[in-house]
Amino acid sequence: MSRLLPTVARSLLGLLFLVFGLNGFLHFLPMPPHPGRAGEFLGALAASGYMFPLIKGTEVVGGALLLSGRLVPLALILLAPVIVNIVAFHLALEPGGYGMLAFIVGLEAYLAWAYRDSFAGVLNPNARPVAGEHAAPQWPAPARERARDRASRGPGRATRREHGADAPAAARPGPRDARSKGQRCAASVASR
């Protein structure tokens, strides 16, 4: 049952957003008119010329990703602001429909919990950039900090890293091979 529940929740939320997202483009489901401020707000979004296609396109992409089961955490992140705005719209401008709102928020929250391991890096307060060609330079610790660390270990005591204990056995410092690099390469080729 525990394997089936995330699949059912993912499929329901994906189908919901795919259908209503496509309805924004194809208008196959009749939508009731929105009175008052809610109608004015939706009219302003439609008049902008880009906002409705952006919102509905996000719903279609998020729903399709959820239905396919691919990139589910990305789909949940894409749909989260849409869901927040749907809830805010109904709370502030058009009260009602709270059952459907609770259903949508519940599915999103459950799926976020079910895929919580995928969000571990996003929620890491001590995140660092990936080291690489375009990463920010990692400056060495100031000399004062290095001296304090050495002093706290006591005289003649090195860290595991300084001894090379973290490295694989082949990479640890050891007695230097007296042969030249060319001789070592020739010996390794001959041994094959």
TrEMBL record:
For this UniProt record, give its keywords in alphabetical order, as a comma-separated list.
Membrane, Transmembrane, Transmembrane helix
Q: Where is this region: Disordered?
A: 131-192
**Which superkingdom, per the lineage?**
Bacteria
Q: Which residues cross the membrane?
A: 12-29, 41-67, 74-92, 98-115
Leader sequence segment: none
What segments bear the compositional bias annotation Basic and acidic residues? Answer: 143-152
Q: What is the name of this protein? A: DoxX family protein
The record lists the organism as: Nannocystis pusilla
Tell me the organism's taxonomic lineage.
Bacteria, Pseudomonadati, Myxococcota, Polyangia, Nannocystales
